[in-house]
Amino acid sequence: MKNRLKIIVVCFLLLLFFLLGQTDYVPLKLATTHFRHFFFEMLLFLPCMFVLIGLVDAWLPRSIIEPYIGKSSGFKGSFWIILFAMLQAGPLYGAFPVSVLLWEKGASIRNIFLYLGAFSTLKIPMLTFETGFMGWQFTLLRTLVTLPLFVLIAFLMEFILKKTNFSVVNPKV
Amino acid sequence: MLFFLFTVIVMTISFFSNREKTYFGIKKGFKMFYGIFPDLLFILLATSLMLGFIPEQTIIKYLGDSSGVFGILIVAVIGSVALIPAFIAFPLAAFVMKAGVSIKLLAVFITTLMMVGVITFPLECRYFGFKAAFLRNFFSFIAAILIGLTIGLVL
Predict the structure, then answer these.
(1) Alpha-carbon span A150 to B144, nearest angstrom
(2) Would an 8 Å CB–CB cutoff place A124 in contact with chain B?
């Protein structure tokens, strides 16, 4: 579906959603409140994220970043990419476009999935939040158990996908 | 807010270092944002509806009452389908934990929430292809249950 058409469809759904939210039906009222909450979070966060991604792309051409995260770099590259993921923030779908960038810069299949694993479970902003609410024991233990498992997943993904024509691409607009 | 300030600072530094690169970067960033914007709106809409229609008490009830294999599976499925940002999920989890819900279930819930995305699955497919997206979510689902069980054993 063309992007513009999609936007029109979604806008229509949103209009319907908010009109229905005006009624006294509680679940819909709640839903509109949730939506407003998420929307403003997204509106502030995502454009920033994408601008940063764009700037990284402009400033770090393939030749500079490749020694760190490229196919030939092995475990050192994995280390850098996990560190890179930990410093970021936001929901997992924010990591997909970054994966495209990493892929274009020459990251291996293993490192792409190490990035997704570290991004989803080890983001430092999230860890501070987790420590605050769940306690440091929970956070530390979860981190220690999660790390080897997502490393294992990354190796499995590489093992399975390296024989296919796997690639990471931006969705066609 | 901090993140916003950080972005502005980075943009400013970048602008004074090299205008062309900065314009190129910002343009590229917004183009990518535009590309997934409708998908995102749809995700937000679906999540809001779900949170609206499933009352918090119902969620708490199922997290608390069943702690067997069935309970773990239910929690894992809810965590996989739900799209709750960390700043809501952790306070909610802490609240539920005080209500006496087992930490094992919470760990499964939080980990699936982080690693598995059913609602974002179509979007993930468009980036990585169906096979890779499916395998990543499948392995992550199993890993999340293992993580939860381990945390339940230790804590």
Answers:
(1) 10
(2) no
Residue B102 lies in a domain: yes
Is B44 inside a domain boundary?
A: no
For residue A100, the chain B residues in CB contact (below 8 A) are: 127
Give domain status of residue B126, yes or no: yes
Residues B81 and B140 in one domain: yes
| Cβ pair B41:A14 closer than 8 A | yes
**pLDDT tens digits, one per residue of A48-59:** 877 887 887 788
CA of A66 to nearest chain B CA: how many angstroms apart? 19
CA B147 to chain centre: 17
B146 to chain A: which residues are within 8 Å by CB?
A: 145, 149
Model ipTM?
A: 0.70
pLDDT at A129 > cutoff 90 = no
Q: Is the pLDDT of residue A62 over 60?
A: no
* DSSP-assigned beta bridge partners for residue A85: none
Query: How many domains is chain B partitioned into structurally?
Result: 2
**Separation in Å, CA of A151 to nearest CA in chain B:** 11
- Give Cα separations from A156 to A57, A74, A98, B116 (angstroms): 29, 16, 21, 17
Task: State the pLDDT at residue B63.
Answer: 60
Residue B17 belongs to what domain range? 1-38
Residue B46 CA to residue B40 CA, distance in Å, equals 10
In a domain, B27, yes or no: yes
Which residue of B10, B88, B114 to mutate against A (max A Cβ within 10 Å)? B114
State mean pLDDT over B67-83.
84
Orientation of helix A62-69 relative to helix A74-86, angle to 10°? 110
Provide, as residue numbers in chain A, all residues whose Cβ is less than 8 Å from the Cβ of B86.
126, 129-130
B59 lies in the same domain as B28: no
A164 touches chain B (CB under 8 A): yes
Confidence of residue B61 (pLDDT cuts 50, 70, 90): low
pTM for the full predicted model = 0.70
Assess whether B62 and B18 both reside in one domain. Answer: no
